[in-house]
C-alpha cells in the first residue's frame, strides 16, 4: 500500500473536469464484471455513486440509513435500492431511487459510466452507476429511509490510513470486509466494496478481493 497519494491523482481530485474526463475514459467502454459468492436467486438492485464539487475539491455523497429500513439498518450507503417491476432498466432504478431518497432529479445527474456488480449477503445483485451533479443542491431527504447525508472528499478516501480490511465469516462464507473511516463514520459492507471497486477501476488502487476461498 502506498504511503501517500500520487501527485497526479491528487491533482485530479481538485479538478472536476479532469476527473470527469478520467471516469469517461475508464468506464465508457468498460464491461462490468459480476462478483458472486452464491448462485442462489437474487433480487436486482442499483445504486448511484454520486460525485460533486465542493470547497474546491471533488466529494462523494453517501447516505446513513435509518433503523426503520428493512435491510442494512444504520449503515452508510450510496443512494439506491431494488428494481421495481415498472423500471425499464437498472439505470432507471438507480436514478429513481436517488430521487426518492435524497431528492436529486434524474435530469440533474450526468451519468459517467458503471462499475462492477456485486451480490450482497442479503442476495441483492447491485448494479452501480457513476453520476455527477452540481452542488449546492436542494436535497429532499426521505425521512423513513435516510437519517442524514454524508459528504466525503474523494482525496480523503484515497489516503492509506483511511482504509483497512478485516476478515469476517458469515453462513460459511469468508469475506474480506473493506472499511473506510471518515470522522466518526465508517463506510463498510457492500458500500465499502463498491467504493473500493470504483477507486480501483479509476486510479488502479489495488484492494484485496472481497471473497476468500471456503
Would you write up a description of this structure?
The structure is a single chain. Helices cover 24% and strands 35% of the residues. It is α+β, with helices and mostly antiparallel strands. The strands form two sheets. Strands 1, 2, 3, 4, 5, 6, 7, 8 and 9 form a nine-stranded mixed beta sheet that branches. Strands 10-11-12 form a three-stranded antiparallel beta sheet. A hairpin with a 2-residue loop joins strand 10 and strand 11 (173-182). The chain has a single domain, classed as Nucleoside Triphosphate Pyrophosphohydrolase (Alpha-Beta Complex).
Helix and strand topology:
Elements: H1 7-13, H2 16-27, E1 34-35, E2 43-54, E3 57-65, E4 76-77, E5 80-82, H3 90-102, E6 110-114, E7 117-119, E8 124-132, E9 146-153, H4 154-157, E10 163-170, E11 173-182, E12 185-187, H5 189-203
Parallel strand pairs: 1-7, 2-8
Antiparallel strand pairs: 2-3, 2-5, 3-4, 3-9, 6-8, 7-8, 10-11, 11-12
CATH architecture: Alpha-Beta Complex
Which series of helices and strands comes N to C?
A: HHEEEEEHEEEEHEEEH
Helix-strand makeup class? alpha+beta
Q: What is the percent of helical residues?
A: 10-25%
Q: How many helix segments?
A: 5
Segments where pLDDT lies below 50 for 5+ residues?
A: none
Give the domain tally: 1
CATH topology: Nucleoside Triphosphate Pyrophosphohydrolase
CATH superfamily: Nucleoside Triphosphate Pyrophosphohydrolase
Portion in strands? 25-35%
From the N-terminal CA to the C-terminal CA, the straight-line distance is 26 Å
Count of DSSP strands: 12
Q: Specify the biggest β-sheet.
A: 9 strands, mixed
CATH classification, class level = Alpha Beta
Q: What is the radius of gyration computed over CA atoms, rounded to a whole number of angstroms?
A: 16 Å
* Mean pLDDT reading: 93
Q: Which descriptor suits the 3D outline?
A: globular
Amino acid at each position: 500500500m502506498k504511503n501517500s497519494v500520487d501527485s497526479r491523482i491528487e491533482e485530479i481530485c481538485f479538478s472536476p473536469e479532469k476527473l470527469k474526463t478520467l471516469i469517461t475514459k475508464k468506464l465508457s467502454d468498460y464491461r462490468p464484471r459480476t462478483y458472486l459468492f452464491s448462485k442462489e436467486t437474487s433480487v436486482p438492485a442499483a445504486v448511484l455513486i454520486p460525485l460533486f464539487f465542493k470547497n474546491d475539491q471533488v466529494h462523494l455523497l453517501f447516505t446513513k440509513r435509518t433503523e426503520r429500513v428493512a435491510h442494512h439498518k444504520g449503515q452508510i450507503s450510496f443512494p439506491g435500492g431494488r428494481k421495481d417491476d415498472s423500471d425499464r432498466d437498472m439505470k432507471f432504478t438507480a436514478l429513481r431511487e436517488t430521487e426518492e431518497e435524497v431528492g436529486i432529479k434524474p435530469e440533474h445527474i450526468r451519468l459517467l459510466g458503471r462499475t462492477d456488480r456485486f451480490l450482497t449477503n442479503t442476495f441483492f445483485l447491485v448494479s452501480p452507476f457513476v453520476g455527477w451533479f452540481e452542488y449546492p443542491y436542494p436535497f429532499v431527504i426521505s425521512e423513513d429511509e435516510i437519517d442524514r447525508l454524508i459528504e466525503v472528499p474523494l482525496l480523503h478516501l484515497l489516503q492509506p490510513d483511511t482504509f483497512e480490511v478485516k476478515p469476517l465469516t458469515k453462513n460459511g462464507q469468508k469475506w474480506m470486509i473493506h472499511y473506510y473511516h471518515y470522522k466518526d463514520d465508517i463506510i463498510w459492507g457492500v458500500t465499502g466494496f463498491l467504493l473500493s471497486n470504483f477507486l480501483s477501476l479509476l486510479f488502479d488502487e489495488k484492494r484485496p478481493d472481497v471473497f476468500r476461498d471456503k
